[in-house]
Write a structure and sequence with these properties.
- The complex is a heterodimer of chains A (about 300) and B (about 425).
- By secondary structure, chain A is α/β, with parallel strands linked by helices.
- Helices cover about 30% and strands about 15% of the residues of chain A.
- Chain A has two domains: about 200 residues, Rossmann fold (3-Layer(aba) Sandwich), CATH 3.40.50.620; about 80 residues, no CATH class.
- In chain A, strand 1, helix 2 and strand 2 form a beta-alpha-beta unit.
- Chain B has about 425 residues and is α+β, with helices and mostly antiparallel strands.
- Chain B contains ten helices and 23 strands.
- Classes of the chains: A alpha/beta (about 300), B alpha+beta (about 425).
- Chain A: Belongs to the PAPS reductase family. CysD subfamily.
Amino acid sequence: MQRCDYLLSQLDVLEAESIQIIREVAAEFERPVLLFSGGKDSIVMLRLAEKAFWPAPIPFPVMHVDTGHNFPEVIEYRDRRVAELGVRLVVASVQDSIDQGRVVEETGRRASRNRLQTTTLLDAIEEHQFDAAFGGARRDEEKARAKERVVSFRDEFGQWDPKNQRPELWNLYNTKIRRGEHVRVFPLSNWTELDIWDYIRREGLELPPIYFAHTRMVFERDGMLLADISYANRGEDEPAFEATVRYRTVGDASCTGAVKSSAATLDEVIEEIAATRITERGQTRADDRTSEAAMEDRKKEGYF
Amino acid sequence: MTTSKQMDILRFATAGSVDDGKSTLIGRLLYDSKSIFEDQLEAVERTSVDRGEDYTNLALLTDGLRAEREQGITIDVAYRYFATPRRKFIIADTPGHIQYTRNMVTGASTADLAIILVDARKGILEQSRRHAFLTTLLKVPHLVVAVNKMDLVGYDQAVYERIIDEFTAFASKLAVTDLTFIPISALHGDNVVDRSPNMGWYEGSSLLHHLEHVHIASDRNLIDVRFPVQYVIRPHKSTDPELHDYRGYAGQVAGGVLKPGDEVVHLPSGLTTTITHIDGPGGPVAEAYAPMSVTLRLADDIDISRGDMIARPHNRPEVAQDLDAMVCWMTPDRALSPRMKLVIKHTTRTARALVKELHYRLDVNTLHRDETATALQLNEIGRVSLRVTQPLFVDDYSRNRLTGGFILIDEATHNTVAAGMITGAK
């Protein structure tokens, strides 16, 4: 890890920076929570939190905003990992928000619960009085996210105001908020998709199996391969077929696309990603294809 | 893009306006290092066509917000990433017009290197001087002046030499530690990634080659041990007797090299003790240095909490409640003026600060000191004296950016309203 000239590798620098952020937030906020989806970024974030406080346990709970449209493998992984670490899991359910009339389910073939998550997330933050929520978003993912702060202020409505953000200098983070306000914290801001995979390999982190090539029934919609599961609302004009695929991102199963791939091992996946010419969101997220400012609009409302 | 165990990170800030070709340069670095993806390029091409532009406007890649695209301006610092087999690069792309000083100061605070773009046809402008001054104020260790649009002056060596002379004369008034000039054409790619055949008279390296090879290992302070205590780790596991007595002081090394066995002093108590163990993220480490995040275990049971500092008995920071500092004022809400009370955040310690005196306002274009100034407005820089409610453990910013820098926070709005660089303490 160390070299005689006191240089650190890029992964060591990113890890040190992320741990500094996680500790700072744990020290300055009363009720932080870590958003954990079972996706690769939140798996890395959880690993960093584990390291930040070792040998003490992680001093905050993790929360999964559950759309109900899950890949079973991911839920199984989530529960196992949470049990290993002995952290408390809070599940905020979009189905509950629908049942309580807080949100109305979209209709039509492309109905997605992706946008509804924002209400569920904000309600859960309010209910549990969380004042800081760690998210696994990275600046390289999307252009609105490139403008995001590490510690990002949210007002009492959970809104993000991109034109009026607190400047961030050196490693000093402004953690001042009032009751009812909160911050989103992005310890992985400076990581790229490839850094995440390199770190997973270095740390020997286990991932849900859907990240590796497997065969499943899929169908094509808007140039993406969606899993043929009930909530994807496959139409009769959208024939299902078997394909060898893997997931590059893990999100709501009804709008997260799989990619055709034979990469069955970590090394093969990293090789594939290093060579790919399409961004992960562009390739696999229907929600970001709505318009050029789709992510910005959702983020302003309080999305992840 | 490839992965490599030997890769390190270079953070750089780019300064210049759209007219200087800054976006074109960033676009080219990203494009030529294969860091722009096809779907991003297609989206940019589509938008360029929609707007009736006859070229692919690479500025659209960095302008991520709706308002930015609508108004054709950059509002905020954007961070971009690319990598070559030698290094990972983090670009802080700071906008040229709106909120210029505030954004450049923010981007420069963590930068190892700054690139100032100069239009070869226009030479050194007022804003070039401003960029150079802010770079040195924030102590960015390496400065590159990229003389762009060389194609539009016929790749003329005389034009380039004239700009070097003019800039060097101005830079002699500043504390520039490492200055490099590179003649380029971002549009055509001359001297950006590869040496240009159009400028045979230029004997230096291409911009990317310089970014890949500039020596940054010596920029950190490896002399003065500074370890601000960030978090105290106490597992309290009654089931595990070994952990029951575990008490670790977690933090990010801000200076020097720490080793088990070293004698250290705790501030503010002044008590000395010895480091017994250093726990890194991957287990015990033999040495810790910036920017590592580690946990120290000490031989003696001293009352140590967040906000305290670990240093060496014969090399301590100043323990001070009176600070002299250069500050950059960053809010339009109200002006900085004497008697103002603010929150100060310095390393891991937060206190309250009173502005005792505003000595002068500095004109960032002429470096003239206006001692009649009574306030600092948005984007203005001046020298102040502060009185702080509790002692801070500080160094001059020129000695250590992490123990010499601070932010000021408005007690009413909670906005970050200033960045400060300590120049003296008592």
